[in-house]
Amino acid sequence: MIDWSACSTVERSPGKVSGTWVFRGTRVPVRALFENLEDGATVDDFIEWFPGVTRAQVDGVLGHASASLTVESAA
Fold this sequence. Notes:
single chain, about 80 residues, Arc Repressor Mutant, subunit A, two-stranded antiparallel ribbon
């Protein structure tokens, strides 16, 4: 499981979207990015469909996920 607490582009608050990880400053869950990508959407599609989420935030989430997977694989 990915530890999102070290990713600066996301946040979690008990009173915001039931405490799920969201893109900082939005109510868009991080899982929505991965669900949309799995369903064939592009990053550009996602950014268009979820106003308020920036490319830098998406890049930060994808980079963090990639780095986390690399660390997990090395363990």
